[in-house]
Amino acid sequence: MTKSKGVGRGGKRLGAGKKKKHRAAPIVAECAPTGLSAEDIAKGYIDLAMETLAHIARNGTSEPARVAAADKLLDRAVGKPKPGSVKDADDKQSAAPDSWGALLSGQEPRAN
């Protein structure tokens, strides 16, 4: 019977075990009290937020991110639709006060 020379048997090996995840450095900046409300502070970042959304909408690498950014830009520029304003496609023609739906479907518009 031969004795092992201690090669490859147990013990700590270089590179073995679970790898550690890379973590971002902690944020160490502290905010000094300004006396402003959170809403007032957030208003100072509106331009930056809109520029960021526009950049993502133009140059985003994933399609869902681009669509979400464009949707948020439209919500802020035009406004979100009110819930229940148009319930379904059939109600669109009757909901239009200027009768564009009737005109597009080939019917004569109603006289006001």
The parts where pLDDT drops under 50 for at least 5 residues are none
Structural class assignment: mainly alpha
Oligomeric form of this entry? single chain
The residue fraction in helices comes out at: 40-55%
Helix/strand order: HHHHH
Description:
0% of the residues are buried. The longest helix is centred in the middle third of the chain and has 15 residues, at 63-77. The chain is elongated. Helix 2 packs across helix 3. The mean pLDDT is 76. The chain has helices at residues 38-43, 46-59, 63-77, 91-95, 100-104. It has a domain at 36-81. It is mainly α and 112 residues long.
Q: Which helices and strands, and how do they pair?
A:
Blueprint: H1 38-43, H2 46-59, H3 63-77, H4 91-95, H5 100-104
Helix pairs in contact: 2-3
Give a quick precis of the structure.
This protein is mostly helical and 112 residues long. 40% of the residues lie in helices and 0% in strands. It has a domain at 36-81.
What key attributes describe this structure?
112 residues; 0% strand
